[in-house]
Structure of Zinc-containing alcohol dehydrogenase superfamily protein:
Amino acid sequence: NRQITLASRPVGAPTPDNFKLVETAVPTPERGQVLVKALYLSLDPYMRGRMSDAKSYAPSVKIGEVMTGGAVGRVIDSRHPGFKEGDIVEGRIGWQDYGLVEGGMLRKVDPDVAPISTALGVLGMPGLTAYFGLFEIGKPRPGETLVVSAASGAVGAVVCQLGKMAGARVVGIAGGPDKCAYVKDELGVDAVIDYKAEKDLAKALAAACPDGIDVYFDNVGGPVTDAIANLFNLRARMIVCGLISHYNMPDGYVGPSILRSVLTNRVLIQGMIVFDWHDRWPAGIAQLGKFVKAGKLKYKEDVTEGLENAPATFIGMLEGRNFGKTIIKIAE
Ligand code: NDP
């Protein structure tokens, strides 16, 4: 059983020597447990937080422990009545070939709805983040302007499309011409901004949002979010979903300068963690699954083969080298 463990804690951006590949015996399940062979591993920005020992909403990975992570896999051996050999499941298997998971913590994946890897993206945690964050906090109304940062990514791409379905005018922000073309042409947003190419981001945003901003779904924080500040309409809503531009900063980011605008425009800012709606995940997955099956919700996956490539791929994702939901293919 190959495992990727945390060798040391990164200072700033993670490097390959923060990770270590080790070999261990394949474990045997005890009562209530299920042994799962990983097929697809999800790489997600939150894992950067788990590598650090700073206080967060979830415990950090300890030095020498297997890196935490969601994966889709096949049941090899089950001592839980809800699962049998051959079932396809999703759960916290970690960065390894085989994981032992409590049966109650696994969910079955229906291969008839969409390819099983989607359980890590559009039909999994990132899709649900978009769904609940947008509809429970952002609540876009027809004709309102919705701005989405990291718009080509796993969460952002779903937000863009759900926003269009809700009748909003959607403006995506992404880095580079390929991602911007995808957001505009494939996801069907009304305008897109390449934040890496714009010298004056605030000006470009003002031009793309002639009626101001009613909902801002923020995945990045930092300078992109600062550029939003003066465009908020009265009673705008801002979903603080992620701050990826801060994650690799050794001392965090100093800001934000948006607060004056928050005050004068009575903007509602709410942080969110997708687990807040855990009891409603099955309903969310069912709804998103219907959209995918009907061809109304597109998704893009960025798949790299081989568990041994997980560290480099993860480091690249934090720098924006991924294009779509980042996934490692571990086995057939
Ligand atoms: P993505 O698939 O969007 O991948 C990350 C993307 O972030 C990169 O492709 C890159 O796109 C962008 N990015 C990287 N660095 C910067 C930077 N300095 N400034 C601006 N953009 C940057 O990841 P996810 O969709 O999985 O996650 C998006 C965000 O949502 C993350 O912040 C994550 O932590 C958060 N999240 C929060 C959850 C919650 O419950 N609150 C749950 C899931 C995710 P580009 O090339 O366009 O810059």
